[in-house]
Every structure is written in structure tokens, then in C-alpha cells.
């Protein structure tokens, strides 16, 4: 499977995860419509999970707690860099975490670390599945 197909699959998977995440968040705030959303900008950002494949291959045998921590740091780096880039290139960042006391410059929220930890391990499983499909 080529890199472009995997990039697309990661991008679509990230969109779906984000819509479920924001939908559950809206439910917790009392919205029984389970309104979920994402931004078009997020597709290429989630597609960058492709860059985590070599890391996954290198740390595959490490304990899950360590792998998840590594993925969390990588995701925070990508999220911060993407937010900074968008703000400086187009003048705005689609997400704004500045109202959270756990925010760093409005680009990342440290309290989202558990969610990114789990997302990293989920993308790891997706990588394994894509690899099996490619070699099947």
C-alpha cells in the first residue's frame, strides 16, 4: 500500500476519532444531539500519523505504557507545530485551547494527554493492520 493511501487512511481515521471525541464532549455538556465536528485542516494533520510508522517499528517491543508516552509526545509536538504554523501562515488556528489552564499557547492541552496516549496506541494498531493488508 503506498504512502498516499496510508496518509489518506490516517487522515480519515483521525477525522472520525475527532468527531466521536467532540460528539461525546457535547453529550457531556448536555447536548443529546451528540454534535461532533472537526476541521478540514485536521485531515493532513492526522495524515501525518504516517510519520509515526518508523517510530512504531523501532519501539514495537517496548511496554505499552512507554510506547503510549512516546506517541503522546510526538502528537503534542505535531499538534503544537501545526497550530503555530496555521496561526502564522493563515492568521488563525482552528482550535483554541487558551481558555484551559492546561493550555500551552492555546495550541495544545496537557490534560488531553490520556486521549493522545490512547490515540497513539490506536494508530499503532491501524499501522499493523495496514501492514498486514499490504503483505497479504
From TrEMBL:
Please give the Pfam families that the UniProt record associates with this protein.
ABC_trans_CmpB
Instruction: Name the membrane topology term.
Output: Multi-pass membrane protein
User: What sections of the protein cross the membrane?
Assistant: 7-28, 34-52, 64-86, 106-123
Q: Which UniProt keywords apply?
A: Membrane, Transmembrane, Transmembrane helix
Localization annotation: Membrane
Q: Name one GO cellular component term.
A: membrane
Cite the PANTHER family for this sequence.
TRANSMEMBRANE PROTEIN 229 FAMILY MEMBER, TRANSMEMBRANE PROTEIN 229A
Please give the name of this protein.
Answer: ABC-transporter type IV
Amino acid at each position: 500500500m503506498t504512502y498516499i493511501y496510508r496518509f489518506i487512511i490516517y487522515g480519515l481515521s483521525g477525522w472520525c476519532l475527532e468527531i466521536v471525541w467532540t460528539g461525546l464532549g457535547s453529550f457531556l455538556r448536555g447536548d443529546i444531539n451528540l454534535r461532533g465536528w472537526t476541521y478540514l485542516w485536521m485531515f493532513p494533520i492526522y495524515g501525518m500519523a504516517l510519520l509515526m510508522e518508523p517510530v512504531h517499528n523501532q519501539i514495537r517491543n517496548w511496554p505499552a505504557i512507554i510506547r503510549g508516552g512516546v506517541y503522546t509526545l510526538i502528537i503534542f509536538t505535531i499538534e503544537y507545530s501545526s497550530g503555530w504554523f496555521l496561526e502564522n501562515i493563515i492568521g488563525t488556528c482552528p482550535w483554541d485551547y487558551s481558555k484551559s489552564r492546561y493550555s500551552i499557547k492555546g495550541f495544545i492541552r496537557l490534560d488531553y494527554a490520556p486521549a493522545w496516549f490512547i490515540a497513539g496506541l490506536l494508530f499503532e494498531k491501524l499501522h499493523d493492520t495496514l501492514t498486514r493488508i499490504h503483505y497479504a
